[in-house]
Amino acid sequence: MATKIKIKNLPVGYQSIISNGRHSIVGDEPVTSKGTDMGFSPEDLMLSALASCKVATVRYIARKNGWEIGNVEASLEMKVDRLSGGHLKSNVAVSIHIEGDLTDEQRTELLKQADRCYVHRMILGEWNIEPSTAAMEIAGAVAS
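Predicted structure:
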């Protein structure tokens, strides 16, 4: 099943309500970009997706193997360099802290699996982002 996200702007700054049909969050831009900084920036959302996937993968693999772990915390930091021709190069540093009485081998395996999580593989994989198209308005609702 395809993932579907809908977004509707709010009249303040660059605030938007972002929804997957079950949950909603606020997106915005930082004040330095003329936003109000009242929600996640697009970059925050990208890193959050990656961090969430890595932490969930660590927890899943630990449960699958019967390894007792406590809290799992990830810290991600992204640096983006602007290249010629409008291209961007992004570097993401990832640090994951796993509480629990684990052997070095278990901890290494959990970190290795975190780097193989679905979102990590998706980001490194092949992308085809189709050109934007105009949505048709139907009785006040937007359909695409």
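Summary: The helical segments are 42-65, 104-114, 118-124.
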